[in-house]
Automatic annotation (TrEMBL):
Transmembrane segments: 20-40, 46-67, 79-99, 105-126, 147-168, 174-193, 214-238, 250-271, 278-295, 301-324, 336-359, 365-386
Region (Disordered): 392-412
A Pfam family this chain is assigned to: MFS_1
Basic and acidic residues bias spans: 402-412
Keywords: Membrane, Transmembrane, Transmembrane helix
InterPro entries per UniProt: MFS, MFS_trans_sf
Superkingdom field: Bacteria
Protein name in UniProt: MFS transporter
MF (Gene Ontology): transmembrane transporter activity
Length: 412
């Protein structure tokens, strides 16, 4: 590991909460694709599979910011454990309902309950922010977290799809639930690095989403999430059409590997100038990288195209986390990070559901039109909201000098 990354772990407790966060985040990459694989294995209905995955994402979009808002007010331990238990109970219902062929509405209700799963990534980033706020190490920490996210997306789909196709259909989602339980309960047992809660009276009852800059980030990441959700579903169907459904996990892992490699390098760099410009460039790169998918004819070409496309993901996500710090009050940082995840979740829901219906109607190859259109939408929203995003944000929770420095840079 390069020295800037190794230096992060000099602070006591960092290794333990990072390891717990890794386990707790594995379900992020395993559950949705695991449900798609499980339901398509049991019923052959990709439309239903995509809709169920979309339901999980939409439920997380509704519940996630509320859970994180409670975390900011009451602390991680008091909130995450009951929220996780609700999600695990709903996951158990889903597995039984799928296995025994219960009515579709039961599947949808269970998926809605799974959406109570907490945003573990936001919890870990909040711990890093509490340790390294205002230092160069925070950029490196956010880069590390993006790499960890992508490592989860490399191995998560391989494990989930592999178990569900080689062992039994419910195996992938079942293991995802086990990872969630172990990760969250281990994380919340670590009290020394838990960020200090901020009771409601300290910052009022308003939502972090009132910040104009955060609104732009969330809206753009709805379209970005549609890229991710549709790519997952279409890739499984594309591999299935060619008689190699299990290979979909490897192809999706290469998508994450490209992002992982780019994120690791990005964390070693130090940038000058406005981060908003780097963010917008990243959004454009993600959109352009979807165009070659429209031309895919075989799995090797698809794997190469997705690896290249993934290289734009992590740098964009890292820059996004830095922008959240500038546009959200410190007492609402966890909620602000979760709102971006919510935008992604809504997009994943729209993308996976839309891709499922396109696949059923016109085949897998036509489904790659969904991420291409989603990329174009992300660019449009990014350009339309750029002025609000680049405007100095009030109520950042930083120092007077930080406010003045940023205002002077934008005036210049």
């Amino acid at each position: 590991m390069p020295s800037p990354y190794r230096a992060l772990f000099d602070a006591p407790g960092t290794r333990a909460f990072s390891a717990a966060g890794f386990l707790g985040r594995m379900p992020l990459s395993m559950m949705g694709i695991g449900v798609v694989t499980m339901v398509s294995q049991l019923t052959g209905r990709y439309g239903l599979a995509g809709a169920l995955s979309a339901t999980i994402a939409l439920a997380a979009a509704v519940a996630g910011p509320q859970v994180s808002r409670l975390v900011d007010q009451h602390g991680q331990r008091r909130v995450l454990r009951p929220a996780t238990l609700i999600s695990l109970a709903a996951g158990a219902v889903l597995l039984f309902a799928a296995h025994y062929g219960w009515p579709d509405w039961v599947l949808f209700v269970a998926c809605a309950g799974i959406g109570c799963v907490p945003s573990v990534g936001a919890m870990i980033r909040a711990r890093w922010a509490a340790l390294y706020r205002g230092t160069p190490q925070l950029h490196t920490a956010y880069s590390l977290e993006s790499v960890v996210d992508e490592v989860c997306f490399i191995f998560g789909p391989i494990i989930s799809i592999g178990l569900s196709t080689a062992w039994f259909p419910e195996a992938g989602p079942l293991l995802a639930g086990c990872f969630l339980a172990v990760g969250v309960f281990w994380l919340t047992a670590q009290r020394a690095t838990e960020p200090t809660p901020h009771p409601r009276e300290r910052h009022g009852g308003s939502s972090a989403l009132r910040a104009p800059g955060l609104q732009v980030l969330v809206a753009t990441f709805v379209a970005t999430g549609a890229i991710f959700g549709s790519v997952d579903v279409v890739t499984v169907a594309f591999a299935d059409e060619r008689g190699h459904k299990g290979a979909a996990s490897v192809v999706l892992a290469l998508y994450a590997a490209g992002s992982c490699a780019a994120g690791a390098v990005f964390g070693l760099l130090r940038f000058k100038g406005a981060p908003e410009r780097r963010w917008l460039l990243g959004i454009c790169a993600m959109a352009v990288s979807m165009i070659p998918l429209l031309l895919v004819g075989n799995l090797p070409f698809l794997a190469v195209a997705l690896f290249v496309a993934g290289m734009a993901v992590a740098p964009t996500m890292i820059t996004t986390m830095s922008l959240i710090e500038e546009h959200v009050p410190r007492a609402q940082l966890t909620e602000g990070m979760t709102w971006v995840s919510t935008g992604l979740a809504v997009g994943v829901a729209l993308g996976s559901s839309g891709a499922g219906w396109v696949i059923d109607a016109a085949g897998a190859k036509a489904g790659y039109g969904v991420p291409a259109v989603s990329g174009a939408a992300a660019v449009a929203v990014g350009f339309l909201g750029y002025r609000r995003l680049s405007r100095p944000a009030p109520r950042r929770g930083g120092t007077v000098e930080q406010h003045s420095e940023r205002e002077e840079r934008h005036v210049a």
